[in-house]
Amino acid sequence: MFARPTYPSCRLAGDASGCWLGSERGHGGCTSKVPAPELPYLPPRPQRSDHRIGLIGCGGITTYHLDAYRDAGFQTIAFCDIDVASATNRRDTYNPDGQVFTDYRELLALPEITVVDIATHPGIRGEMIAAALQAGKHVLSQKPFCLDLDEGEKLVALADSLGLQLAVNQNGRWAPHFSYMRHAVSAGLIGDVEAAHLAVHWDHTWTEDTVFNDVPHLILYDFAIHWFDMLCCFMGDARPLRVYASEARTAAQTNKPPMLGQVLVEYEHAQATLVFDAATKHGAADHSRIVGASGTMESHGPDLSHQSVTLYQKEGIAHPVLEGEWFKNGLRAPWPNCFVPSKKSAPRATTPGTILTVWSCVSPPSQARKATNPKSPAPYAACPDQVTRRNNFMADAKTFKLRTDTNLHERSRPQNECRD
Prior knowledge:
Blueprint: E1 52-56, H1 62-72, E2 75-80, H2 84-94, E3 99-101, H3 104-108, E4 115-118, H4 122-134, E5 138-141, H5 149-162, E6 166-168, H6 176-186, E7 193-201, H7 218-223, H8 225-235, E8 242-248, E9 260-266, E10 271-277, E11 285-292, E12 295-301, E13 308-313, E14 316-318, H9 326-330, E15 392-395, E16 399-403, H10 406-409
Parallel strand pairs: 1-2, 1-4, 2-3, 4-5, 5-6, 7-10
Antiparallel strand pairs: 7-11, 8-9, 8-16, 9-10, 11-12, 12-13, 13-14, 15-16
């Protein structure tokens, strides 16, 4: 019979300290609750509010974009979609005085527009981004940024040469729980990250009756992109040694793309797993756990928007009370601050060279280092994403294989860019 372990510093349950034997599951021993560190997890307000925005692509997600722009004080003055009813609906809801187009080139011809939000699917987005940049507009692109990474680098180089900003909507960085956790990692509150385990269990089968049903590798390609991005933020400068990924169909699913996906990433001194169960009919859950050399953080909840964070340290256990939700906070992130022109020097493209799907407005472009590869036209200022120029998942029917190229390792990037 095993004896119950004793903890000399532990007090009885109900004591004024609020501490009891094994008071926090998984922490080991008795630890009192401590105040949560204050971290700048909320997106700052924009520096200016006189931008005039043109929206190309008026699908469902754009309601969140337009809500965020309105809250920030920006005016969306033109709406474009090949479905004129969709564009008209957005116009009538958000700016009855706005203009409606079915040809994006007509929207780009409006001189008063300073920023273009391009929310079409990636297959046709590249030419629109190029046209918007050539028309002198700053650009916010939806994710995934592009399908051809060579094309993506050319677009970044174009933005850089024109002194315009090109950002990609990796809004997960400003989800309250993810933002707090990445700021905690950046502040060194848990030491060097040794493990990261992120898992989402939800029902994504609603996509069967939408255009998403025809997207190959839907879960890992379109949905998981935010979790790949967050993993890179948590891991900082650590470079993956090996990446394994797989997908599978459930026995009951009728969707075309597999609803199950998983990824294993090996580092020299760390490991990470990503799990996506997209056919969870009951008991939905979202859980993230980051283990460091001197502390641990975890976040859990029933969905993406409702999460509670716990920080475990030697000093005690903290439960920060966070404001906002993923979409509300994420789409109010400070991308407009990147579009403030400088008289001293032209701003550089915010999505540089090898990394194309990042919410790189988090760091000012002026902090970007130029690539050590002289052939690279743009600075390498962002952290590695799941789709990179040199570390690229190449999809076949069932697996994604990692290929590498020495050019990636020849490049430098600023420390902790993903961590502010």
